[in-house]
Automatic annotation (TrEMBL):
Gene Ontology CC terms: cytosol
A family per Pfam: Glyco_transf_9
Provenance organism: Luteitalea pratensis
NCBIfam families reported in the protein's UniProt record: heptsyl_trn_II
InterPro entries on file: Glyco_trans_9, LPS_LOS_Heptosyltrfase, RfaF
Protein name as catalogued: lipopolysaccharide heptosyltransferase II
Length: 350
């Protein structure tokens, strides 16, 4: 086909996956620099799209699943009059929406029985994988489609608006603008098995405060119980140096907080991926999930404790959660001191 004028990328539905897809999205923009590149994602993720690649704009999709959502998405996408759609989602529904939208070229992986809905359907086994990392899954797709394979590197750009929103929230919570910030994201949407114990997070927060720093807790509304448990574990005398923003930030403001922080402590989560993409040194504890598949793209240190049952990929631990509980606060404190922006890919095991 001739070089497309208008390209829509169907981005992943989760924040972490969207960040991991960013190098492949950038590669599409590099391949067709004269084309308009738009990224269709759930509306909640739309503000992040231009941070990952300023050349792109977002198409905020309303509703997530079901026939009604497919119809709404098709109507929204039809209005874009796209020449080409590249699907980073694997679902039948996302391919059906593109077909119903009348996009003439629809490219993606042949998954979920949707091959007949795509004009170029790539089998996963026919791609060239350079690693088992999930970002390489997206990179392998665009390479199979004729786009030069991107390097798996990323540095998101924090807009001034995000910075301003974050500063306003932090100053309202007592930050003076100079105290070293540690952002803690103690929640995880996947399930409690991915959460490092709140008592351990509290120990790290207390140590950071003891050295004159300020701790900010971030997360979505469902993460409030985890945030409350962290606060409860910090001595009352130190709680004045904690700003709890759980459930109080927009996604853009969350990016601002993570970008302003000197260090980030997070589970395997969207916050982890966004923080590292922004260039903030990030320490993460991995237990049930695969660090070799979902390590962040940016400066980071991953800590694990090897047991026979990990990575189990379970949402809830049916045993004693030793893969997470055995990672000590002292190891995390040491990692927070050691991790630095220029070199990030370091996995420490025990």
């Amino acid at each position: 086909m001739n070089a497309p004028r208008r390209v829509v990328v169907r981005g992943p539905n989760w924040l972490g996956d969207l960040v991991l897809a960013a190098p492949a999205i950038r590669a599409i923009g590099d391949a067709w620099p004269e084309a308009s590149i738009e990224v269709a994602v759930p509306a909640a993720l739309a503000p992040i799209v231009p941070l990952l690649d300023p050349r792109t704009s977002a198409v905020p999709l309303e509703g997530r699943t079901g026939l009604a959502a497919i119809g709404r998405h098709a109507t929204q996408l039809a209005a874009g009059a796209y020449d080409l759609a590249v699907l980073f989602t694997n679902s039948f529904g996302s391919a059906l929406a593109m077909r119903r939208a009348g996009v003439p070229e629809r490219w993606g992986y042949r998954r979920d029985g949707r091959g007949m809905l795509l004009t170029r359907a790539i089998r996963v086994r026919h791609t060239r994988r350079e690693s088992r990392h999930h970002a390489d899954y997206y990179a392998a797709l665009v390479e199979a489609l004729g786009v030069p394979r991107p390097t798996l590197a990323l540095h998101a750009i924090l807009p001034q608006r995000a910075r301003d929103e974050a500063v306003a929230l932090l100053r309202a919570g007592g930050w003076d603008g100079s105290a070293a910030l540690l952002a803690c994201a103690p929640g995880a949407a996947y399930g409690s098995a991915k959460q490092w114990p709140a008592r351990h997070v509290a120990s790290v927060a207390s140590a950071w405060i003891g050295e004159g720093g300020l701790v900010v807790i971030v997360g979505a509304g469902p993460d409030r119980p985890a945030a409350a448990a962290v606060l409860a574990g910090v001595p009352a005398s130190s709680r004045g140096a904690i700003v709890d923003l759980t459930g109080r930030t927009s996604l853009l403001a969350l990016a601002g907080v993570l970008g302003l922080a000197g260090r980030v402590l997070a589970n395997d989560s969207g916050a982890m991926h966004l923080a590292a993409a922004l260039g903030t040194p990030t320490v993460s504890v991995f237990g049930p999930t695969r660090e070799w598949a979902t390590a962040p793209l940016g400066p980071h240190r991953i800590l694990t404790h090897e047991v026979w049952c990990r990575p189990c990929m379970l949402r809830e631990c049916p045993l004693d959660h030793r893969c997470m509980t055995a990672v000590t606060p002292d190891r995390v404190i040491e990692a927070l001191r050691d991790v630095a922006p220029p070199q990030g890919e370091c996995v420490k095991r025990e």
